[in-house]
Amino acid sequence: MQVPAQVEYEKAASVEHALALLARYGPEARVLAGGHSLIPMMKLRLAQPETLVDINGLSELSYVRVAGGELQIGALTRHAELLSSAPAGEHFAILHDAEKVIADPVVRNWGTIGGSLCQADPSEDLSAAFAALKAIMTICGPEGTRTVPAREFHTGPYETVVSPGELLTEIRIPIRPGGGSAYEKVGRRVGDWPVAAAGVALWLAGDTIADAGIGLTAVGARHFAAAEAEEFLRGASATEENFAQAGQLAAEHCRPVSDQRGPAAYKRHLAAELTVRALRRAADRVRHEDA
Amino acid sequence: MQITVTVNDAAFTREIEPRLLLIHFLRDDLGLTGSHWGCDTSNCGACVIWLDETPVKSCTVLAVMADGHQVRTVEGMGMPGRLDPVQEGFARCHGLQCGFCTPGMMLTARWLLDHNPDPSPVEIREALSGQVCRCTGYENIVRSVQWAARHEAAERDGDRGGTGPGETGHGPTATGVTG
Q1: Based on CB atoms within 10 Å of each CB, which residue in A127, A166, B16, B94 is the most buried?
Q2: What distance in Å separates the CA atoms of residue B133 and residue B130, rounded to the nearest whole number?
């Protein structure tokens, strides 16, 4: 039987109240959102916070909307809500691709987007998706609000730039014309963490790649991104040959480790192959939009 | 600390520790043992209940998170003397063997049919993919949900002035082999 250690509990009534509670209880307090990462960690005593600050009542942090030329996702949005959001799917198909293969439908009902990002698991699917999309994270703290690019959000496995007194409140993705995106994942079984996965956001001008974002997860990619492959693609033609070369670059520059999900060489192979597949699908989606 | 949770339309106020998991609150504090405590790791889905309008795995939710909210468990399905069509489907189509996964399966199936009254077998399997039947009786679980969907469709037709809500379809019968 897994039982969390004793813990104090506070229910936040607003963002300001949550920040005040985090300030009062200090670095041994943890934000409780869906709890689908934190509570399992507490049951295993891998996490032992002194106080939980429950933000589930903050409905103002639960939304997926288009405003100001960007897609805005509140941090408390549940995975199921992002998966069922029409604007999210319309502008960034990668988000629906990824959400379909995150955990299972019942877990997706309660787990939150912000919680997944702040847990910062090195195999997190959304971290790769948001890295590909070059999303912007909004973080609220006692000093006010600051924004951080997705690629500067993580400082290491299970570590982010969100400090103990702060709260991730929103993820924003600029909407640019001519874009298409896709996510490709290989897992051992339905609902599992990825053996490897790749996400791609592609912007085409005719057949030329105006910009490309490539996210990788579970393969030790720096900032969940394949910067060298992106650099190679920028200004190149959207051809199979170039996609294959980008896949090779993505594989060369990641650092997968062998574990129970597979040997490093297999994961490196997947990094290349899944990058190619995601590029292909993202390009098809741009062309389909144009048609 | 004190919490009040409305379970199957009845309010319960109890003194609890914040670390108490919702599944243990339901089973040990309220005596509602229909929700099963399985893997303890949010993988198996035996503990699925509804929190407000959503199926969740209650081994991964603290009881205190349900304070002021509505919980629905298998004990709240159907009415005395009248099973929920999902329950009836499981009974008719042999949708259970040992029965351990059944409460969670039925609660998720109920939610599915409320949102998608005519799901395909693939959609049923997808909806239940976070829940494990260790008897591997998935084939009949899918048939049970299909039976409930057909039964409810027939009842709706009846409500619209059709032939009445009676037994318009008996659904598939279990065939000796399950899973």
Answers
A1: A127
A2: 10
